[in-house]
Amino acid sequence: MKKIVGINFDHMHMGDLLRQVHDHPGAMIAGICDPDPARMAQAIVDFAIPPDAVFTDIAACMATGPDLVILCPATARHAEHVEAVAAYGAAILVEKPFAASLADADRMIAAAVRGGCRMAINWPLAWYPPHITAKRLVDQGAIGALTQVHFHDGNRGPLFHRADKVAVTPAQVAAEKPAAWWYQAASGGGSLLDYLGYGATLGTWFMNGAVPIEVTAVTDRPTGLEVDEHSITILRYAGGLSKMETRWGTLTDPWTIQPQPKCGFVLVGTDGSIGSGDYDDHITLQTRAHPAVQVVPNDRVAAPHRAPVEHVLHCLDSGAPFHGPLDPAIARIGQRIVDTAAASARAGRTLALLG
Asked: What pLDDT, on a 0 to 100 scale, did the predictor assign at position 162?
């Protein structure tokens, strides 16, 4: 039985990841930890976590001897949390995004190497069947050589839902917004840092590790906010242009009703294109040989590759590599793109890829 602990509840996805542990026949929640006990209250109820497995001190939580540590702190605190737990030698699963900066990402990689532990970065979109199906078709050459990745994603805003996608009222959002880390620049807030890593990292995976030459980004920061709620980034690769857009403030959340523009990817190759919507039960395929758009059902994704916890545990047992976007080497390229986009938006000009 694998022992797993969850440390820091800044990100609401901690509840989703703990549910995966709770439902896994070969895993158990050995401990949870947050400096604010109130933030752990719902998880304690949901998963019947006993008092002696609830901690406010990281060292005390790590003394339970976990095999895997799930980290969900604010983006700007990812590096310090990885450094705090890596020395214990347990594997680490960090909830997206990778980090607030490339320097922090490199601190995390270095800490994992020093601790002799494996680290994965979880990107929830990496488990969506349409995107897995799209990747298979790209790798099989269904649209020729991939030259462009177009990405649009976001939601109504990070405060509109809790773990398990439990909805929050607009009045609650308004009350929480002034103090929420999502809206603090020093904590790594903003739609660009929240969502561009998805497009940049999965885009790198779709393109088999290719890197752009230069990046141009523009952000919209509403009056009174420290961070952006909308960004558009253009990536120039040797073979073409890609575009990635992030948005807080969509009319609907994509897991309830897809907003317009639709959340997901359009992949363009030399001989065709693929549309891969985040929550669709299919992808759409158009090729030179068959110009009429074809609807292709999603691949069936089977255990142990349906979700991050079961996948990481399988990889730890088997020694298999982590699923593409979870690999820090792929995620680091995504972080380079994110860093360059943020710098481009601040400078108001196109920049060569950093790092």
From this structure: 87
